[in-house]
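Open question from group meeting: does this chain pack into something compact, or does most of it stay loose? Before anyone orders reagents, we agreed to write out a predicted structure and look at it together. Recording both the input and the output here so the notebook holds the full record.
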Amino acid sequence: MTDFQTKDKLFIGGSFVAPATDATIEVVSPVTEQAIGRTPEARPEDIDRAVAAARTAFDEGPWPQIAVSERIEVMRRFRDAYAARMQETATLIASEVGTPISWSLRGQVGASVGVLDYYLGMAPDFAWEREEQGAGRPVLVRQEPVGVVAAIVAWNAPHFISFSKLAPALVAGCTVVLKVSPENALSSYIIAEAAVEAGLPEGVLSVLPTDRGPSAYLAQHPDIDKVAFTGSVAAGKAVMAAAAANLTRVTLELGGKSAAIILEDADLDITLPALMPHLIPNNGQVCISMTRVLAPRSRYKEVVERLAEQFRTMVVGDPLDPATTVGPLVSERQRDRVEGYIAKGLAEGARLVVGGGRPAHRESGWYVEPTLFADVDNAMTIAQEEIFGPVVAVIPFEDEDDAVRISNNSDYGLHGTVFSVDEQRALALANHLRTGTVGVNGGGIAFNVPFGGYKKSGIGREFGPEGLQAYLESKAVFNWTRR
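Structure tokens returned:
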């Protein structure tokens, strides 16, 4: 684990300054259950200072007005300063969240650099302006930054989620107040320090660790032009309600209950290695986890047995051990929540195949064993609600129509996969799934294509040109002096 860290200042408007109050956050290791650091907690007074700095920087500062190439130059320095500390950052996030270090390097920090690289590469060729003909006159259509952005991010992938908002927003010319969760208060300082090293102009970025309450205060602030939020459905509703007071623009990336459909002709020797990394990544604390596996009734027993074999090989341990594949959950509260879902699954008649308890070899830590349920009906709670832990339900289906019905019978629509040796058959079925992303014989996301969900999985898209467009306003300038 990392040495105990103490921070006494907040990053507001580009500088580390004294907080408005003596409120603090204690960051606790999910492995030892002991404190590993302490930071100030931002309160409404600090939020007001950050928003005021961002407002001034947007309305009066150079950032929105300078050429895109100049913003990219600063952002490249930001990217390089951050990337230079990849190992340190991955270790600290693993210590805060419990992410296995191998996944932390790739999915927490590597993905953050990847998002930056994508937007820095695509921005020079983006259509910032184009000319059209309207009412018989030339019309210049401009893309302009939306303004001051409140980026409110979840604890499970704190830097990746942060940069999924920071990269397009800053490239667009927006200024940003980044609100991070208490669980990640320590690692958030690395983002702030990289911004200082890069020479990001005054007021362009603030980084505020604070709890859930101030999120609504930030979302309803009258000087915020756009809210970009990632988190639970319940929190997303609260943020959207707060933003509605000022008709503030919002994008919401919320939860998922994604289904992996294994068709009858699937080759399990190929399917299972492709599927396993997507079942409980980051200890199941990922919105796109394939927590429902749909198997044909004719091969149901075989699929369950093969999955059980895989679950039993998972290594539960210290997240900083490279051999660990499943670490602890982020908090005692989260472990209690997951254990409550496991109990509900048993009470509703699901059959526990693997796991279901706490690992006997761990004397401390908020661990839950990788857990596999069979004989699950899609109406059961564990098949309908997002558990956000290492729990997977295997659900039988009769035919392809039944598989589509089960997959779509969810409040969520974020991700999904279809496995078959017949590519065209899988593609045809994938087109019937009501999800923002669908994989054929594999899963995952890419930074150059849109990511987001149907239904309660969110509003709007991140990544790709669509992710940049979310931080822009379109202006049509009619030139009546020319024909």
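Observations to bring back to the group:
The first strand starts at residue 5 and ends at 6.
The two ends are 68 Å apart (CA to CA).
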